């Protein structure tokens, strides 16, 4: 007895309009995720200028890296059925991969302490509420005396 195997058919290609719609539908969430991650990295670096703490960009870098991998897998999976979507997701994967490499490079501020600000005055630092010595002597004579 012989079995007849159904002929394998090539996967159906999406129409051009469907491919464009799928490309936009895939691009929008990737843009939102990448935009949020870059905003978080940017504000962490900006805030580090003021509080002297080194920004932690590990979580955001991981999100961008995962986005690159997911976009690459989607681009590979859809390369025959939806070529426009595949190219769009491939570009997302390329951009996200480059951003991940940039954030992981040693030239980024992550892991390096922020520079300490230079002093703007020659007065000694005193506890809250104590001003400079006004007794006519040096500041060391009435240090922390409040007067």
Short characterization:
53% of the residues lie in helices and 0% in strands. By secondary structure, it is mainly alpha-helical.
The global form is rod-shaped
State the low-pLDDT regions, or none: none
Assign a percent range to the helix content: 40-55%
User: With helices defined by DSSP (H or I, 4 residues minimum), what is the helix count?
Assistant: 3
- Could you report the average pLDDT, rounded to the nearest whole number? 75
How many E strands? 0
- Our measurement of the CA-to-CA distance between the termini, rounded to an integer number of angstroms, reads 110 Å
Radius of gyration: 29 Å
- Summing up helix and strand content along with how strands pair, one would put the structural category as mainly alpha
Main β sheet profile:
none
Order of helices and strands: HHH
Which percent band covers the strand fraction? under 5%
Record keyword descriptors for this entry.
mainly alpha, 0% strand
Give your account of this protein's structure.
The protein is mainly alpha-helical and 147 residues long. The chain has a domain at 16-48 and 56-104. The chain is 53% helix and 0% strand. It has helices spanning 16-51, 58-77, 83-104. The longest helix is centred in the N-terminal third of the chain and has 36 residues, at 16-51. It is rod-shaped, with a radius of gyration of 29 Å.
